[in-house]
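Researcher: Last one for today. Full complex below.
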Amino acid sequence: MAPTVFEELTALANRHSAINLGQGFPDSDGPGELRAVAQEAIGLGIDEGGLNQYAPGTGLPEFRVAVSEHHRRFYGRELDPESEVLATTGATEGIAAAILALVSPGDRVVTLSPFYDSYAAMIGLAGGSHATIPLRWPDFQPRVEDIAAAIAPGTRLVVVNTPHNPTGSVVATEALEAIVRRCREVGARILSDEVYEHLVFEGAHVPVASLPGAGAITLTAGSAGKSFSLTGWKVGWLTGPPELITAARAVKQFLTYSSGGPFQRAVARGLGFDRQFFLAGAARLQEQSRCLGDALTSIGFEVNRPAAGYFLIADARPLGVADARELAYRLPESLGVAAIPVTAFVHPGAREDYASLLRFAFCKRPDVLAEAAERLRRLP
Ligand code: PMP
Ligand code: GLN
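Model: Here's the assembly. Have a good evening.
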């Protein structure tokens, strides 16, 4: 397997001291209160009593209760913390465990396209075949006929991602319902990646598992990285019916066995924060998205305004650029800015449809976004 596009472009950005609007991580620390809880949990300054040995394989009980409470508070659904929640090392491990648990060699797995890169890698490692439902500029919504065609009889698993990386779309509820109906028709399970659940600026987040008929067939991946600007902590979770959680847990035993206890304790505190905390985070990101979008528009990009998440997509074609990948690998050195070509998130056969598109991360401080825009003014 080759290094990921994030590895490559972050290394290039670092080598040229470029502003990294490629990899999606915030450039400010998460809440001090949570960092203090983590510090206390490792027992800093005391001789004994830190949470420094293996946490239970399914996660600290207080963490699983917090995930369940959070779910009830925001989505009105009850999850049994004992049997329906699994702590994971970031959503990445949850995705890996779910795919390895549910997919056997030769199985058909369907994702939206563009797709987050780890889905394709894990489907490949599981020996599955990877089919896609295309999302097209400008709304990046799945179409009913594409859903029906992709989720063919024999499909084992459908990976949904809403809010969506890299397009920033919130998948329409009708499309999600169509996916669930089709999965039930063909007997497929669903893995719903909802790591951007709290970063929605337009519309509202609808958990796939809350839709009619979905609860019994859906595993949902969540992450503290995005909601709390703590991407480096790698605290995630899977939720779903006991049968599917047990299957994912069986795999997790041999991926990591268990995930770090101190950060779980801190995230458990964060999951209890009031609604205002999460709304304020989304409002800040929306403003950053607007600023970067306006700047890129004034430079000459055609900008797609995202409804959620960390990223916006900009078309470089109006600037005379047909190959955004070539531009992306040149930009860190030439102008001191990094962005990701959208072709990194599609199969080779679909690259042409996304060839001139770049993904920019706007989860950065306003002064950093302004400086990046200043540098990009020298394009093409
Ligand atoms: N899914 C999506 C859609 C993502 O964008 C990311 C990256 N942030 C992940 C999963 C991985 O999340 P984590 O960092 O919690 O492993
Ligand atoms: N999820 C982040 C992104 O899409 C970073 C993930 C990674 O570096 N693997 O940019």
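The longest strand covers residues 155-161. The chain is about 40% helix and 15% strand.
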